[in-house]
Fold this sequence. Notes:
The structure is a single chain. Strands 1-2-4-3 form a four-stranded antiparallel sheet. It has a three-stranded mixed sheet with strand order 5-7-6, with no helix packed on it. The chain is built from six helices and seven strands. The protein has two domains: 3-151, NADH Oxidase (3-Layer(aba) Sandwich); 153-195, putative fmn-dependent nitroreductase like fold. With 195 residues, it is α+β, with helices and mostly antiparallel strands.
Amino acid sequence: MEVSEAIRNRRSVRKFKDKRVPREDLVELVDYARLAPSGMNKQPLEFVIVDEPELERELFAYTSWAGALDWNPGMEERPRAYILILINPEVKPVTEKRDAGLAAENICLGAVDKELGSCLQIPSEKEEIRKLLGVSNDRVISLAIGLGYPDQETRLEEGSDNIDYWFDDEGVFHVPKRPVEDILHVNKWQAGEVN
């Protein structure tokens, strides 16, 4: 798969099939994350794979989905694995949030290549997650990525001024993206002028 194809096909998935994700695929996604850039090459990130069915069901209870919608997936639609991104402050990171974002995108793009869907989340119930997974108190829980085989069609809506995503009556998830002409400035920024 070409990188450009993976970028265009990567959308957040909110409904997953009841099918386990092979552990070797999850380990390979962490390997992709490990190769992402890191400020001053501090490499402050660590990763927790959660793929044991009982544990991922419990973890699902501490996640929230589609913040712009009044909707959450049902238990049967949940991801079948997670990768949590942790920050080790002992290495004195300088760009840890950016590092986590870059690593997360490598995971999400790698997931597309494996025909997996992904959904990136900032966990709100971090202490419950810490207890559930036994995460050391000296590690910061940064991001969680839900992973699984998609059970929904997701459609990119190009050139929309409306940024609200939605499910249509057939269950297709629509994700609008602003037109490149509205966000691109060449050589200098000009208010109201893109060229």
